[in-house]
Amino acid sequence: MRRLSLALLTACALLTGMAHAQPAGFAAAKARGELVVGVPYLAPPPVAGAKIRTPDGLDANMADKLGQSLGLPVRLHQVAAADAAAALSAGQVDVVLADSAAGQPQAVAVQPTGYGTRPKAVIRSDTRWRKPSDVQGRSVCMAEAATDARKLAESWGAVVRTYRVPSDALVAVREGACDIGLVDDTVWEPLVRFPEWKKFSSTLAPDGARRDRVWLLPAHDAAGRAWLADEMRAWDRAGAWKAMTAKWARDVAFDVYLDQEVPDCHG
Mind listing the UniProt keywords for this protein, alphabetically (predicted)? Predict the structure, then answer.
């Protein structure tokens, strides 16, 4: 009987500890059984038979990782930063990932992610283009979601071409249909480390503003804000950004390989 009582006490203590370990906040998401994350751009679903390719940026990866920490599946919803307050107030989303915290009302809390980027060029190593001024009149390609990259290329006087996904833009660069590709600077280095990208490891002098990503959530959710701040510190300690950018580069490099080397089964 004494052993049984001890076992029961141990089990209760474990269960209590598990309960305490559950993240606080995000009550609506937990009640729904799903975390809804607002992102600036959501690519339309591919048509039947279309190739599945890696989307631009880390938004989907960041949302998935947040959902994993909360123990919830994730659904993405396109929300512009200007519409974040209304979407959060209406309960359409639980949290919004944005490029900037500018212009948000007091009802919206801002949590920096610690992650920021700016566009960086992917160029053939045998070219002489090294400064933004060298790009005037040249074709510069990027994913259609990369709005900052597009604005930057337009400021250079480049001929801008956008593609559905990053790998399509990079294939155009590799095949000579485009002079320069633009990706986030955080993923440039892990991408050009691959042997097949050494011939495309030149770039331009840094230009354009750094874009720091932030989470936006209801200011009244104090528990959620505290948990999210702790979570971002944990991501930083664990090297999450390096891991996510390395995975993105690997996935996009594989997408390009499939496009260039593997016949399309759909014709």
Answer: Signal
Q: What are phi and psi of 113, to 5 degrees?
A: -85, -25
CA dist 139 and 158 (Å) reads 6
User: Could you tell me if 207 and 152 are in contact, meaning their C-beta atoms sit under 8 angstroms apart?
Assistant: yes
Strand 180-184 versus strand 95-98 pairing type: unpaired
- Is the pLDDT reported for residue 68 higher than 80? yes
Give the 3-state secondary structure percentages of the chain, helix then strand then coil, rounded to 5.
45, 20, 35
Q: Are 66 and 96 in contact (CB under 8 A)?
A: no
Domains assigned to the chain = 33-43+54-117+211-258 (3.40.190.10), 119-197 (3.40.190.10)
The rounded distance, in Å, linking the Cα atoms of 56 and 80 is 16
pLDDT per residue as tens digits for the range 113-147: 999 999 999 999 999 999 999 999 999 999 999 99
Q: Which of 264, 117, 255 is nearest to 194 (CA)?
A: 255
Q: Report the C-alpha gap between 248 and 230 in whole angstroms.
A: 24
Of residues 171, 132, 149, the one with CA closest to residue 53: 171
By residue count, the chain amounts to 267
202-240 pLDDT, tens digit each:
999 999 889 899 999 999 999 999 999 999 999 999 999
pTM: 0.84
Are the CB atoms for 129 and 138 separated by under 8 Å?
yes
